Amino acid sequence: MKASHLRRGMNLWPPFLFAGIRVVELSDDYRRARVRLRMHRWNRNYVGTHFGGSLFAMTDPFWMLLVLHHLGREHLVWDKAGEIEFVTPGRGTVTAEFRLTDEHLDEIRSRTADGGKALVWFETDVVDETGAVVARTRKQVYARRKRRGNPVDADAPRAV
Description:
alpha+beta; 34% strand; elongated; Tetrameric acyl-CoA thioesterase; HotDog_dom_sf; DUF4442
């Protein structure tokens, strides 16, 4: 899928659309993404700062999507775990940027070459307009080469 089509679709996806989350950039080579969250009445918490769920949601799918696009159909790729640390109250517009490197991909490919799984942590800062860190997120991505003749990997994480 063309990155521009996915970006447009994600901007219309109800969890992003109604939270005020906007995918500003998704590079054609699926190496970079930039996401923005503007403060609105509907995404503030009780004390008038960004709702933590929106801050986490704006970072949720991107590492998995970027990795999945580069590893292709030969691999299973899933989000395995996620963490968020709130650093300072978020107000105004906040952004998050994702940059997938050759080193990331080389590590995953080498760890999965023999059929093993790779569990790789990626970190992303959510920053305000001054560049101050509002939140730090970590996402663990699971990857494994698909087994021939078995479209579903027995060890792959499953939704409960």
